[in-house]
Amino acid sequence: MEYRTLGRSGIKVSSLALGTDNFANPTPEKESIKIVDAAHDAGINLIDTSNSYAKGEAERIIGRALKQNGKRHDVVLATKAYFPQSDGPNHRGGSRLHLIKACEDSLKRLNTDHIDLYQLHRPDFEVPIEETLSALTDLVRAGKIRYIGSSTAPAWRIMEAIMHSELKGYVRFVSEQPPYNLLDRRIENELVPLCQKHEIGILPWSPMAMGILAGRYAGFELDGKYPAESRAALRGGIYAERITKAGVIVGNQFVELAKKIGISAVQLAILWVKDQPGITAPLIGPRTLKQLTDDYLPVAEMRLSDEARAACDAMVPPGSVMASFHNSAPWMKMKVL
Fold first, then answer.
1. 89: number of Cβ within 10 Å
2. Is the Cβ–Cβ distance between 171 and 140 less than 8 Å?
3. pLDDT by residue (tens digit) across 164-184?
4. Could you report the per-residue pLDDT of 17-72, keeping only the tens digit for each?
5. Positions marked active-site
6. Going from the N-terminus, what domains does the chain have, and what CATH number goes with each?
């Protein structure tokens, strides 16, 4: 397993990170714990979750898994806060009131005394960035979190946060977690150059484009129907919005390219993200232990060839988009293609 420095920090993280959005929704706890153990045994040391995944149950499962295997201090444990935790108007967002309460609740669910990487799940434009950074700084000083990060924020917001951190001595973002895959390359226009310039680690989510790049939705361009067990069918909403005919057509071409290379389309999709400039580690989110061991883990030892990179660029040019994976971002105007 290759290890890379996470932004301007002193920690090393594996070149693949374990995403846990499937834990408890739909992956049962027993299999989720097996996934945590297998990922650790393979060298993955970054586990990413959120207080919103399965209404907090994903955090509880991870807490129990790390207690059982005794590996809590071998992993970089990351979680997030922003989305509503109840109907109360202050139980969401990036305010001091919410973040401190959300952090305390996550610590309990994770069964730990500190969180290694605490991330804003989305930017909150109704709260001054100074308030958010001040609260996070206090949590660092209290020993409850070690580093802070952001997720699905525009480049200008990250730059604004860096400026306030530098001027006022607040804790500084070490990472950004954006959507990034071959079908949505828009972060290459501004966010990636910004992160490279200012040493912000990039931990992309949805590297397989929700399975489009694995051929999951083959046929959608003809009949407009989602596979029965797909996220688009099971969850609808923003997940269904991401499935476009143009994206599926590219996905089908991508599957053929993977066959020519001699690896699975799943592996090529993750590999493409892993080896893109500026990327620290893509988040892989297996539903099953078999997916992790057979499809995802081998990618850690693979390298993307120049020929494969050029073929991917020919399908979707750098900086462009075929399916919007920024559609859950409150600041992104283009929600549906």
1. 9
2. yes
3. 999 999 999 999 999 999 999
4. 999 999 999 999 999 999 999 999 999 999 999 999 999 999 999 999 999 999 99
5. 53
6. 3-177 (3.20.20.100)
